[in-house]
Amino acid sequence: MPQRGVGVGNRYEERMSHEKLWGGRFAEHVAPDMATFNDSFPFDRRLYAEDIHGSIVWAQALGAAGLLTPAERDALEAGLMQVHAEFAAGSFVPHPSDEDIHTAVERRLGELVGAAARKLHTGRSRNDQVATDLRLYCRTAAAQLDTHLHHLQAALVQQAAQHTATLMPGYTHLQRAQPITFGHWCLAYVEMLARDRSRLADATHRLNVLPLGAGALAGNSMGVDRASLAAALGFTAISENSLDAVSDRDFVAELLFIAALIGVHLSRMAEDLILYSSSEFGFIELADAYSTGSSLMPQKKNPDSMELLRGKSGRLTGNLMAILMVLKGLPLAYNKDMQEDKEPLFDSLDTLALGLRVAAAAVATLHVNAERMHAALDSAMLATDLADMLVRQGVPFREAHGKVGQLVRRALALGVALPDLPLAEVQAVQPDLDAAQLRSVFDLAQSVAQKNSRGGTAPAQVAIQVARWQAALGG
Ligand code: ARG
What we know:
Blueprint: H1 8-16, H2 32-38, H3 41-44, H4 48-64, H5 70-89, H6 101-113, H7 126-162, E1 167-172, E2 175-181, H8 182-207, E3 209-210, H9 226-233, E4 237-238, H10 242-247, H11 250-276, E5 284-285, H12 304-327, H13 342-365, E6 367-368, H14 370-375, H15 383-392, H16 397-414, H17 423-429, H18 435-441, H19 444-450, H20 459-473
Parallel strand pairs: 3-4
Antiparallel strand pairs: 1-2, 5-6
Helix pairs in contact: 1-2, 4-5, 4-7, 4-9, 5-6, 7-8, 7-13, 7-20, 8-11, 11-12, 11-13, 12-13, 15-16
């Protein structure tokens, strides 16, 4: 978080000598701590581009409504572009009286263009202004998030393409269950991320609604044309209720939910990779660039990139809780509580943008140890295949399950692997099974190849999915 409250004393002195944009009604100045408490400029300054874009469009609408002369409108536009340039260049100098991005831009505009600046806020409130800024910001952020998700998907698909037939244990309850391919594992996360992307696209429809023109809460009485405002800002719809328009932050909550769920997906992927990179598993090794060492134990190579992805899902979820708690119980319409929407939003967006970049690069550079994966397979994982074979011989599945269960128990009692169970033991349970049939069941590659249903783990299916994703992701 940016440092707040630095040099409060000085800020206060300067503030005393500077007129507040809303100062007319007030006899006393705001207290120093209150100023620090109230100001959002340290964190909402990042909305400058959206704020200025909205103001330029607003000035045009005021001009069209006859509320500004063409000369005034042009002066405002030029001044606003100058303020934009200052922010973009990092040369904008905040004044202690700048409460938030809206007052900062307007104050600086006044310095640049003089009297015309005092007309910009005609018919507008910071309430519809901030709602507009934030929707514009979220729209861009959602598109950027989508790009990051795309890159992670591409990294996973690239790994999958190399490992369509690399066998490894698949787990349920973290117990070895059935053999799968590593490519199949990769594509499971590609599917999750695809749903996240579709959630973003869906949320973008609801984001794309213009609040500007709702005024403080009741609407606009100046004859401003909201349709042309919407068109100029690229909104596809116009809010139909001014109370709702200024007090709705559903779109922030939605984006934070999507961010939290992406975080959960990343966390699950990270947990798999943390386990797989341990010496006990040894299935994968992360590149040095995405690992760190121990200050005490020279031999250690820790999967910190993955641990942080797992850990940061906590704050992503926390940020979702924060916005829901802020909104709960707010009376209509705008309340200052709503200023608390920004820090969780920005934090989640920043956290994910970096996290997704790290995740994509760590996945792209991880090394797969196919031998270790194969060594972790055991023939007991084919017990279901044995039951399936009995089913093909006409044994009802429940009965087959019971018979194979008995064989597993016998093998455990004799201390041998299931395929090494003496034929006599097998035939005691299922008399018409012969040695050749038994051998044919205990073939790991064969077992995986048989999982050839659509979406199954068979290399042929994984290859189909890889091709589908390569086409969908564009190479
Ligand atoms: N900084 C404020 C926010 O983010 C802007 C809106 C202020 N509106 C008001 N009526 N004080 O919510």
